[in-house]
Specification:
Its EC number is 1.14.12.19. By secondary structure, the protein is mainly beta. The protein is built from 1 helix and 9 strands. The termini are close together. The structure holds FE2/S2 (inorganic) cluster.
Protein backbone atom coordinates (compact mmCIF):
# COMPACT_ATOMS: atom_id res chain seq x y z
CA UNK A 1 0.00 0.00 0.00
CA UNK A 2 1.18 3.54 -0.66
CA UNK A 3 -1.33 5.13 1.69
CA UNK A 4 0.16 6.23 5.01
CA UNK A 5 -1.44 5.29 8.30
CA UNK A 6 -1.35 7.71 11.21
CA UNK A 7 -0.04 5.52 14.02
CA UNK A 8 0.43 8.04 16.81
CA UNK A 9 1.92 11.29 17.94
CA UNK A 10 5.60 12.13 18.07
CA UNK A 11 5.25 13.03 21.74
CA UNK A 12 3.93 9.54 22.54
CA UNK A 13 7.22 7.93 21.47
CA UNK A 14 10.23 9.50 23.22
CA UNK A 15 13.77 8.76 22.06
CA UNK A 16 14.75 5.22 22.94
CA UNK A 17 11.13 4.05 22.90
CA UNK A 18 9.11 1.97 20.47
CA UNK A 19 5.51 1.88 19.29
CA UNK A 20 3.99 -1.45 18.27
CA UNK A 21 1.44 -1.11 15.48
CA UNK A 22 -0.73 -4.23 15.39
CA UNK A 23 -1.64 -6.16 12.25
CA UNK A 24 -5.21 -4.92 12.51
CA UNK A 25 -3.89 -1.41 11.94
CA UNK A 26 -1.12 -2.09 9.41
CA UNK A 27 -3.27 -4.43 7.31
CA UNK A 28 -0.31 -6.79 7.06
CA UNK A 29 1.99 -7.89 9.86
CA UNK A 30 2.70 -6.10 13.14
CA UNK A 31 5.21 -3.30 12.56
CA UNK A 32 7.15 -1.40 15.20
CA UNK A 33 8.15 2.24 14.96
CA UNK A 34 11.37 3.03 16.82
CA UNK A 35 12.57 6.46 17.94
CA UNK A 36 16.33 6.13 17.79
CA UNK A 37 18.86 8.08 19.77
CA UNK A 38 19.77 10.08 16.67
CA UNK A 39 16.26 11.55 16.82
CA UNK A 40 15.07 9.69 13.72
CA UNK A 41 12.10 7.35 13.48
CA UNK A 42 12.48 3.94 11.84
CA UNK A 43 10.06 1.06 11.27
CA UNK A 44 10.70 -2.67 11.04
CA UNK A 45 8.59 -5.81 11.06
CA UNK A 46 7.93 -6.37 14.75
CA UNK A 47 8.62 -10.09 14.80
CA UNK A 48 12.25 -11.16 15.08
CA UNK A 49 13.47 -13.20 12.11
CA UNK A 50 15.03 -15.71 14.52
CA UNK A 51 12.05 -16.62 16.68
CA UNK A 52 8.81 -15.60 18.31
CA UNK A 53 9.91 -12.35 19.88
CA UNK A 54 8.56 -8.83 19.58
CA UNK A 55 11.26 -6.32 18.73
CA UNK A 56 9.07 -3.64 20.33
CA UNK A 57 10.15 -5.15 23.64
CA UNK A 58 13.84 -4.99 22.76
CA UNK A 59 16.48 -2.37 23.47
CA UNK A 60 17.45 0.48 21.18
CA UNK A 61 21.19 1.16 21.05
CA UNK A 62 22.36 3.82 18.60
CA UNK A 63 20.89 2.75 15.23
CA UNK A 64 20.26 -0.84 16.30
CA UNK A 65 17.49 -2.80 18.00
CA UNK A 66 18.45 -5.75 20.17
CA UNK A 67 16.00 -8.65 20.33
CA UNK A 68 14.70 -9.23 23.88
CA UNK A 69 14.80 -13.03 23.56
CA UNK A 70 18.31 -14.02 22.38
CA UNK A 71 19.94 -10.66 21.83
CA UNK A 72 20.35 -10.53 18.05
CA UNK A 73 20.83 -6.98 16.77
CA UNK A 74 19.17 -5.52 13.68
CA UNK A 75 20.03 -2.28 11.92
CA UNK A 76 17.12 0.16 12.25
CA UNK A 77 18.09 1.88 8.99
CA UNK A 78 18.44 -1.19 6.76
CA UNK A 79 16.86 -4.11 8.62
CA UNK A 80 20.12 -6.05 8.34
CA UNK A 81 20.69 -8.85 10.85
CA UNK A 82 23.95 -7.73 12.46
CA UNK A 83 24.62 -10.37 15.10
CA UNK A 84 23.83 -14.01 15.78
CA UNK A 85 21.65 -15.86 16.38
CA UNK A 86 19.66 -13.99 13.72
CA UNK A 87 20.91 -14.62 10.18
CA UNK A 88 17.95 -13.35 8.16
CA UNK A 89 17.49 -9.63 7.54
CA UNK A 90 14.16 -8.07 8.41
CA UNK A 91 12.07 -5.60 6.47
CA UNK A 92 12.06 -1.84 6.89
CA UNK A 93 9.07 0.39 6.33
CA UNK A 94 8.88 4.08 5.55
CA UNK A 95 7.88 6.29 8.45
CA UNK A 96 7.50 10.05 8.33
CA UNK A 97 6.90 12.84 10.79
CA UNK A 98 4.16 15.23 9.69
CA UNK A 99 3.89 17.92 12.32
CA UNK A 100 2.92 15.99 15.44
CA UNK A 101 1.77 12.92 13.50
CA UNK A 102 3.72 9.72 12.92
CA UNK A 103 2.84 8.33 9.50
CA UNK A 104 3.64 4.74 8.58
CA UNK A 105 3.73 3.33 5.05
CA UNK A 106 3.43 -0.45 5.47
CA UNK A 107 5.47 -2.13 2.75
FE1 LIG B 1 15.19 -12.80 18.36
FE2 LIG B 1 16.08 -15.28 18.93
S1 LIG B 1 14.03 -14.60 18.81
S2 LIG B 1 17.23 -13.49 18.55
Amino acid sequence: SVDPIRVGSVSEVPEGEALLVPAATTGTVPITVFHAEDGEFYALDDRCTHGAASLAEGWIEDDQIECPLHGAAFCLRTGAALTLPATVDTRTHRVEVDGEDLLLYPG
